[in-house]
């Protein structure tokens, strides 16, 4: 047995011989000599171990293994996929899909040098915020504006600028925690602000804020509880009244909207959310909000409000560490310009288009795809068109869902078979991500636009034995 294994090892081709193989020579042109050499060495090392147990081999098998190894190393880890989870703004799946105009603007910024911090009129150094400042002010009614890399950074920067070593007054019912271990009290501590809680979890009154104000107060912070809602015996102080209280004591009011929106969502059949313009008109000195949630752009955090406070924020050394690059800045500008034509927003902006899709349109799509899935999956999986409800996601309108339609894929094996089915769809060239509920894999079709690509993708589906 040992002699047979030694004979097989002697017949194993050398690294140099495999590198001279015509198919691998082609791979070297594509991936480089170093990558190809490492792939051959690793393939031969694995085969050398397997030969001990009597595995047969030929050069064609080695070439195929090298090709597979190189393809795996070259493939992107940030894979495009179909989001059929029913959560439109899914944080784990990248939140907002960008408009074509934003994609093209970002691509142009990547391909060439741009006037990022160069004033073409004067020929001198400029400010990168200038590319969106006037546009943001136009859309929000604010005096001035700046932006950083996300809304958490915006809140951190505002707190550090206006309330370092001073008190930040906030209602106990607004001390939120969102995904990724973002807790408002901890952000305040990192910013150097001293938290001063007022009121109780469910009820906070104007007198609570007024009683907390003093010489150590840096600001009053109002936080939009975007990812939960307290109902029942509750009371809160509205932003307009809170602005009056703050201004009587010459203290700035900061209103963190979280998933800020620039348009009234009720025009698209959704529950109304406070817009940034309304927050400015209500008297907030600064308003912070996200760029990649309901606004529908790339990840960014906007700060709008009083000119003197924005100037102070821009002087903070932390601003440079939190600034956005040319690619996101270009995508932000292009996205914001779409809001100048609100009548065509649902046509141009994917997040609005997804949220505004009619239930009937989605139902018809489910009816078209149901037999296609049934044919691809075979008799072991029952496929049914079902009604479901979509979530907006990313903390926006947490209790609101939208009627939708989808496909229920129920394996006859049940239990583990559902997980196997879900894994099979995740393993497709373009992964399909749904949700498992009540013994079935559910695909909510609200966000499915490229139906032809979805159908073509199914040709690569391979089901495991568990089904």
Protein model, in words:
- It is a single chain.
- The chain has 467 residues and is α/β, with parallel strands linked by helices.
- It folds into 3 domains: 2-74, no CATH class; 82-91 and 354-460, Aspartate Aminotransferase, domain 1 (Alpha-Beta Complex); 100-348, 3-Layer(aba) Sandwich (Aspartate Aminotransferase, domain 2).
- It has 20 helices and 17 strands.
- The strands form 5 sheets. The protein has a 7-stranded mixed beta sheet, with helices on both faces.
- α11 (239-248) links the parallel β9 and β10.
- α6 runs antiparallel to α15.
- It is globular.
- 38% of the residues are buried.
- The model has no long low-confidence stretch (mean pLDDT 89).
For this entry, give a set of tags.
Aspartate Aminotransferase, domain 2; 43% helix; 3 domains; globular; 17 strands; single chain; 467 residues; alpha/beta; 20 helices; four-stranded antiparallel beta sheet; seven-stranded mixed beta sheet; Aspartate Aminotransferase, domain 1
């Amino acid at each position: 047995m040992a002699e047979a294994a030694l004979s097989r090892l002697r017949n194993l081709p050398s690294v140099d011989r495999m590198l001279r193989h015509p198919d691998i020579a082609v791979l070297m042109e594509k991936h480089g000599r170093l990558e190809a050499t490492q792939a051959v060495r690793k393939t031969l090392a694995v085969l050398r171990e397997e030969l001990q147990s009597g595995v047969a081999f030929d050069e064609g098998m080695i070439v195929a293994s090298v090709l597979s190894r190189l393809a795996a190393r070259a493939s992107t880890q940030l894979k495009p996929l179909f989001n059929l989870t029913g959560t439109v703004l899914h944080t784990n799946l990248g939140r907002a899909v960008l408009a074509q105009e934003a994609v093209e603007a970002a691509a142009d910024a990547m391909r060439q040098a741009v006037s990022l911090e160069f004033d073409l009129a004067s020929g001198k150094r400029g400010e990168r915020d200038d590319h969106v400042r006037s546009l943001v002010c136009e859309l929000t009614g604010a005096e001035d504006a700046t932006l950083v890399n996300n809304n958490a950074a915006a809140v951190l920067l505002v707190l550090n600028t206006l309330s370092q070593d001073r008190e930040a007054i906030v209602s106990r019912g607004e001390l939120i925690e969102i995904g990724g271990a973002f807790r408002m009290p901890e952000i305040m501590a990192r910013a150097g602000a001293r938290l001063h809680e007022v009121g109780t979890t469910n009820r906070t009154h104007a007198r609570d804020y007024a009683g907390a104000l003093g010489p150590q107060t840096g600001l009053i912070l109002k936080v939009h509880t975007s990812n939960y809602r307290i109902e029942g015996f509750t009371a809160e102080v509205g932003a307009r009244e809170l602005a009056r209280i703050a201004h009587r004591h010459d203290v700035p009011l900061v209103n963190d909207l979280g998933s800020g929106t620039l348009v009234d969502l009720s025009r698209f059949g959704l529950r109304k959310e406070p817009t940034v313009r309304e927050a400015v008109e209500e008297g907030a000195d600064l308003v912070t909000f996200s760029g990649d949630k309901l606004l529908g752009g790339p990840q960014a955090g906007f700060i709008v409000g009083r000119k003197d406070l924005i100037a102070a924020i821009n002087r903070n050394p932390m601003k440079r560490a939190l600034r956005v690059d040319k690619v996101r800045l270009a995508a932000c500008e292009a996205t914001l310009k779409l809001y100048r034509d609100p009548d065509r927003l649902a046509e141009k902006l994917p997040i609005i288009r997804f949220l505004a899709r009619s239930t009937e349109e989605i139902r018809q799509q489910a009816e078209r795809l149901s037999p296609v899935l049934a044919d691809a999956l075979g008799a072991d999986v029952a496929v049914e068109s079902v009604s479901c409800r979509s979530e907006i996601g990313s903390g926006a309108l947490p209790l609101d869902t939208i009627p939708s339609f989808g496909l229920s894929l129920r394996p006859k094996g049940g239990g583990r078979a559902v997980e196997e089915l879900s894994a099979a769809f995740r393993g497709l060239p373009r992964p399909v991500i749904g949700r498992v509920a009540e013994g079935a894999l559910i695909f909510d079709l609200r966000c499915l636009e490229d139906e032809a690509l979805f159908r073509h993708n199914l040709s690569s589906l391979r089901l495991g034995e568990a089904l």
